[in-house]
Design goal:
The protein is built from four helices and no strands. It is mostly helical and 129 residues long. The longest helix is centred in the middle third of the chain and has 27 residues.
C-alpha cells in the first residue's frame, strides 16, 4: 500500500466509525412513553375533534367527509412514525442491514480481486433482510 493511501484509508475508517456511532445512538435512544401518548392525544383529541368546527364554514355539508379524510391522513402519519421509530430491528419494513452488509462485503472483496465472493442476499417472500 502506498503511503498516500494510508491517510485516505485512515480518514475513511474514521468517518465509518463516526457513522456507526451515530447509528448506535439512534438505536439505543428510547422514545419516552409519555411523549408517545401525548402525540396520540394531541392528534386524536385536540386536532381531530376541533377540526369540524374550523371547517364547517368552508366545507358545509361535506365537513364530515373532509374531517374523515384529514383525520385518516394524520392517523396514518402517526402509524408510520411508530413503524420507523426503530429502523435497526428485524421487522419486514426495517432496514435490510444484512443485505447492505453483504453488498459492502462483496464490493470490498471485488476491489481486492478476491475469488471467493459470496452471492448477494435475495428477498425471501418479497422481503430483503
Amino acid at each position: 500500500m502506498h503511503d498516500l493511501h494510508v491517510g485516505i484509508l485512515e480518514g475513511s475508517l474514521g468517518a465509518m466509525t463516526d457513522v456507526q456511532g451515530r447509528c448506535e445512538r439512534i438505536k439505543n435512544t428510547p422514545i419516552p412513553f409519555t411523549y408517545h401518548v401525548l402525540l396520540h392525544r394531541i392528534v386524536a383529541v385536540v386536532f381531530c375533534l376541533a377540526l369540524p368546527f374550523g371547517l364547517f364554514e368552508i366545507a358545509g355539508n361535506l365537513t364530515p367527509v373532509v374531517v374523515c379524510m384529514i383525520s385518516y391522513a394524520f392517523f396514518g402519519l402517526d402509524s408510520i412514525g411508530d413503524e420507523v421509530e426503530q429502523p435497526f430491528e428485524t421487522d419486514d419494513n426495517d432496514l435490510p442491514l444484512a443485505a447492505i452488509c453483504r453488498t459492502i462485503e462483496i464490493d470490498l472483496l471485488q476491489m481486492i480481486r478476491e475469488d471467493a465472493v459470496q452471492e448477494p442476499l435475495q428477498p425471501v417472500h418479497g422481503v430483503l433482510s
